[in-house]
Design goal:
The protein is α+β, with helices and mostly antiparallel strands. Helix content is 30%, strand content 23%. 38% of the residues are buried. The structure holds adenosine-5'-triphosphate. Adenosine-5'-triphosphate binds next to strand 15, helix 2 and helix 11. Residues 67-117 form the FHA domain.
Length: 477
């Protein structure tokens, strides 16, 4: 049967112009519409209408990725009157290949267009029989135009640029929908803030938001972090512990650095997303989980798929909505607003008094390339607040790398030393400055510093030890 349905990633806009990435789909054309400063998003909904049987006339219109039908009141469409329908009769999953109908071990079976099925793809107008009821399926594709938001602030994120306001508009629109979201962007661009905003503006905001950094967990523990473990499941499992999915029950799970997830664990994650149930490591019980999944990555997962490092089916499952956060250097006009917002924070004013940047200092900040994005900007601000005394922040208060992007002049070597010693000293100075800077940018996170610098974690550890750097002190309090 030819599966019906548009591609889950059919969200359209101009990828170069605004911050919502729509073009990076490995297959299938997306319905992309480009307009000045506007984004169009293709939203997928479907209608289920009981066309005959005791519940005739009941209907459901939903954008849920997975919906259930049966006699039990917890189903999305409840067959109240139909005594021959099972409690959980069938479900419909929105997959990368279309809408998939799955029988849930019902007593009398699920029939699609007259044939009994266990799993089959639906087409527009498909007739599903469950018990004495016939349910007609109709997909509804809604194309929504999203204007840049009027506000230059959303849930703690500041952004006056069109790119950011466009993202704010998109977040407001998709947050209430219970669909998966992938956020892609360089390190420090604000991916976690976006995830928090989506959670905060969703119907799950009263539930927990559980953050799991897939890149920071040792590979041998990631499975138990995700799915939990029973007592004695492995050496060190002294007591049973629920995993992130269980803890996110009723709320949202935020899988940060998803691109770091080992290839052999990806099918396990996919299974959880498809079946919405987990089994703890070392456990037998199947635990149902109900949470929204938001994932973030600084890698280009489409390239990772092509390279065989990331599973395409998992990507499709997660990227119903794909938000691409542009790097700070592509939205420099946000810099003064972010700084102004941070300087106006009550605790900053209380601790440091009223401060402002001189025009020269501000233009240096605007000219810098910000490889560590907003996080680096925030770190520079802390540095500046510590080192500036008066009300005005001057270029001399800025760290050398910001001041000196156009740094000229001779290399600072000691000409009185032998060539070998002078070179060694120069290299050591460079190593110390480089590692200090990358660690500051990564808030003392050695794994992230390793990734960003292209060095092995072991090399970073060696340099931290060699120069007696305080990586722990750089962690956020
Ligand atoms: N638009 C923004 N306005 C104000 N602060 C921001 C904005 N974006 C990011 N920040 C700040 O920058 C820092 C980094 O943000 P965040 O942790 O969300 O980035 P990230 O992309 O998730 O980083 P990583 O890739 O390293 O996980 C945080 O201190 C956050 O508060």
């Amino acid at each position: 049967m030819s599966p019906h349905g548009p591609h889950p990633d059919d969200i359209g806009t101009n990828p170069g112009d605004v911050g919502v990435d729509l073009g990076s789909v490995p297959q299938a054309p997306s319905h992309t519409l480009v307009m000045d400063h506007r984004t169009t998003v293709k939203l997928h909904k479907c209608r289920l209408h009981v066309s005959s049987g005791p519940d005739e006339g009941r209907q459901l219109v939903t954008d849920k990725e997975r919906l259930r039908v049966g006699a039990h009141p917890q189903n999305d469409l409840v067959l109240v009157e139909d005594r021959t329908a099972s409690r959980h009769h069938f479900e419909i999953q929105y997959t990368e290949r279309g809408y998939l109908l799955v029988d849930l071990n019902s007593t009398n079976g699920t029939f699609l267009d007259g044939r009994r099925i266990e799993r089959a793809y639906l087409s527009p107008g498909s007739q599903i029989r469950a018990g004495s009821s016939t349910v007609t399926f109709s997909p509804i594709d809604e194309e929504v135009t999203i204007e840049p938001d009027r506000e230059g602030e959303l849930c703690g994120m500041v952004g006056q640029s069109v790119k950011m306001r466009q993202i704010f508009g998109l977040i407001k629109r998709i947050a209430p929908m219970d669909v998966s979201v992938i956020i892609q962007g360089e390190t420090g661009t604000g991916k976690e803030l976006v995830a928090r905003a989506v959670h905060e503006l969703s119907g799950r905001k009263k539930g927990p938001l559980v953050v799991l950094d897939c890149g920071a967990i040792p590979p041998n523990l990631i499975e138990s972090e995700l799915f939990g473990h029973e007592k004695g499941a492995f050496t060190g499992a002294v007591s049973a512990r629920p995993g992130a999915f269980e803890r996110a029950q009723g709320g949202t799970i935020f899988l940060d650095e998803l691109g770091e997830l080992r290839l052999d664990l990806q099918p396990k994650l996919l299974r959880v997303l498809e079946n919405r149930e987990v089994r703890r490591v070392g456990g037998n019980d199947v635990i149902e989980v109900d949470c929204r999944v938001i994932a973030a990555t600084n890698r280009d997962l489409v390239k990772e798929i092509a390279a065989g490092a990331f599973r395409e089916d998992l990507y499709f499952r997660l990227s119903v909505i794909h938000i691409h956060l542009p790097p700070l250097r592509q939205r420099r006009d946000d810099i003064p607003h972010i700084l102004k917002g941070a300087l106006a924070e009550p605790e900053v004013v209380e601790r440091h008094g009223r401060k402002r940047f001189s025009p020269e200092a501000l233009s240096m900040l605007m000219a810098y390339t910000w490889p560590g994005n907003v996080r680096e900007l925030m770190n520079v601000l802390s540095h500046v607040l510590t080192f500036s005394e008066g009300e005005e922040i001057l270029p001399t208060h800025l760290p050398p790398r910001v001041r000196g992007q156009a740094r000229e002049g001779p290399l600072p070597f000691n000409e009185h030393l032998s060539f070998k010693d002078a070179k060694e000293q120069l290299l050591e100075n460079f190593e110390r400055e480089y590692i200090t800077s990358v660690l500051a940018r990564c808030e003392g996170n050695l794994s992230r510093a390793a990734r960003e610098s292209g060095l092995h974690r072991k090399s970073i550890e060696r340099l931290v030890k060699k120069y007696q750097l305080d990586a722990k002190g750089m962690k956020p309090r």
